Amino acid sequence: MASGTCLILLGANTGAKELPSVFELSMKELISIDVSVASSESEAILETPAIVSRYNRHDLEKMGVSNLREMFNFIPGVIVQDSLPGWASVQIRGIDETFNQKVLFLLDGVPYHQPSHSIIPMEGIPWESISHVEVIRGPGAVFHGTQASGGVFNVVTRRDLDKRSVSLKVGKNKLKAGSVYYNKQFTEKSALYLAAEFRAEDGYNASYTELFPDVGLISDKVNRVLENESVLIRYTNNEASIQIHAFSDTTTGINDAYADLNTLQPFINDTKGYLIHLENSWTSENSRTQVFADYNHYTFDLQIHNLFAPGTHALINKEKDGKNDYRIRLGANTTYRLGDSIDLEAGIEHETRSVGAYQLQFLESPGNPLATLFEKGSTDELSAYSQLEYSYQDFKFYIGARYTDNEKNGSKITPRLAGVYNIDAHQSLKLLYSTGFNSPNPTQTDLYLPGNVVGNKTLDAEIVKASDVAYTYSKTNFLFVANVYHLEAEDFIVRQYSEELNSVTFFNDGNYTRQGAELDLQIARERSKLFVNVAYQKEGNKIDPDDADAYRIPRLTTSVGASVDLNDTHSLGASLSYISSRHGLNDFTVVNVNYTARFSDIDVFLLARNLFDEDILNPNNTSQNSTLVAPGEEGVHIQLGFRFHF
Asked: What is the set of domains in the chain, with CATH numbers?
């Protein structure tokens, strides 16, 4: 394991338990499938006061989904794509940012992001440890703070005892990967869970023939490598728990800002960190109280090749190996039943975000900075929230608010209102309103790298407001959710190229509205399963001077997945992801096909990814008005894997 592995402990609000495949559930069990990302307690999808999707890893894996990126990419309205710098960029309902500053990533309910750039650990979770993913589409309601303006992504890890597994994969581009999940129960109330993963891949050649700023047409290619290692440890004893997650990863991309060069400037991104989370809960007849604390160290180095001249390479990193890049969060929350029909939920959190000085130096002579791109600093943020839930006959009403006081960006109250009407035991109607408050990060305000990126110290926090109307039907082995939404952005932080600065910079220029609709369907049979979802965005692929992002958004996205057990040994599955045209790029469809054979305690699976060899091209989101394109994975990819159960 590399020295830069990262620690993460079990998050707050993590009451979900490992569940079997949705297609193995009875009618009653299917209806009661819970999600924990939208409230302080688990709630059924039928009644949760938010637009939430949940997908189990086991189900999607049988359909040809082989990594966390693809799991999230299966969610309605979500696109996880390659960016020019090299890391995974998440777009949800058309909202995105190169470093993922607009989506909140949770591991078992714990916020997990890098403090200066907001990078999230998309490559850092052991595959065998994942139970399922939950995603809130839209602002993160009252229970989640900064970075939840676009949506909330929660990775829930396994808690099933006496089920252990090891998986091994090999494939194209010299892919070698292994992942393990192990558990040990000591007493009725205490248990240990362990997981680890390694992955090494030579990567694919991303080819560019494009017009770059200040240079003109460049034809070149860069090898897109991906390597990662991770470890997860969790110990639970009664209602107390400690969880440690550690990871490091390396990805490659390119720099899209140029001076006088006629060759690409490859990026090599080395990310590492650790997060530790502690929690304890107390439960009485009418209440549940929880206290928690977490420490998250998270930093990265960035090599830029050919920065000053061909063959001259630079290193951008944090001083003292990122020692000062950390987040400390302390908090408590409580749920109290005031009566048969009234529940009160409240919580308070304090977070300190510290960043080290960001330095530029020659790669060949580290320790001698040429320039400091931003100085060491820290920011405190205090937040408090409360929500009242009132039940009356077939209605549930929610009213709540979150107060956020950011040391640098002031204070704001963001409300949440929701009404849920249960038509009968299987149907509900929801009317939802929520807001998100998102402070700019130090990269957006303080970074100073002329000719590349320059921050804007006058930035204000951004606000996103979302209204949804949703219908849910859940009966026997059938789950259907349909919703329409209206989204308003105020002082939305956007990246744009500035001719005056000859650099990309940041502005509060995003004041716009958007409308869309989403469908999410799950159908189960004894030996088969089918998932279908569709997302429509009215403003997609339009040129709008008030909404520079719209041109980079597809109007229609669709994901379809299906699997069938041919007999007790063999199964076939496939998944399809469709993205309509945007940014002047053609639409494309990616198809994966998976075959699985089960022999006693061994599974053998053969996977073909991008079966029809589609050209996967992504708009450049390092600047809203950029014409550049980020190539995705090339060619058909064959993987052979084995899973051993013990």
From this structure: 22-645 (2.40.170.20)
The Cα–Cα gap between 172 and 537 comes to: 35
Contact indicator for 303, 319 with CB cutoff of 8 Å:
no
- For residue 39, the model assigns a pLDDT of 67
Residues 469/483, Cβ–Cβ less than 8 Å: yes
Residue 469, C-beta contacts closer than 8 angstroms, at least 6 positions apart: 429, 430, 431, 432, 483, 484, 485
Q: Give the list of residues 6+ apart from residue 285 with CB closer than 8 angstroms, or none.
A: none
Bridge-based pairing of strands 151-157 and 103-107 is parallel
Eight-class DSSP state of 85: T
290 and 281 in contact (C-beta within 8 Å)?
yes
Closest-CA residue to 451 (of 622, 264, 214, 99)? 214
CA distance 618 to 217: 19
* pLDDT value, residue 6: 33
Provide the residue count of the chain. Answer: 646
Give DSSP secondary structure letters for 111-150.
E---TTT----TT-S-GGGEEEEEEEESS-TTT--TT-SS
Q: Is the dihedral of CA 158, 163, 164, 165 positive or negative?
A: negative
Hey, how many other C-beta atoms are within 10 angstroms of the C-beta on 92? Answer: 24
d(CA 443, CA 501): 16
- pTM of the predicted protein model: 0.93
What token pair was written down for 340? 């048969």
Q: Which amino acid, residue 540? A: G
Q: Which residues lie across from 330 on neighbouring strands?
A: 293, 350
Residue 451: band (very low, low, confident or very high) from pLDDT cuts 50, 70, 90: confident
First vs last C-alpha separation in the chain: 24
Give 468-513 pLDDT, tens digit per residue.
Answer: 999 999 887 899 999 999 999 999 998 888 888 888 899 998 789 9
Cβ 385 vs Cβ 403: under 8 Å: yes
Regarding beta strands 43-44 and 342-355, do their DSSP bridges make them parallel or antiparallel, or are they unpaired?
A: unpaired
Please give the backbone phi and psi of residue 206, each rounded to the nearest 5 degrees, phi first: -90, 120
Residues contacting 98, CB < 8 A, separation 6+: 83, 85, 89, 495, 621, 622
Q: Cα–Cα distance between 276 and 28 in angstroms, integer?
A: 37
Residues forming beta bridges with residue 481, ordered by sequence position: 472, 520
CA 442 to chain centre: 20
Longest dimension (CA), the chain: 72
With contact defined as beta carbons under 8 Å apart, do 62 and 596 qualify?
yes
- Encode pLDDT of 616-643 as tens digits: 999 988 877 788 888 888 889 999 999 9
Phi, psi of 66 (to 5 degrees): -125, 0
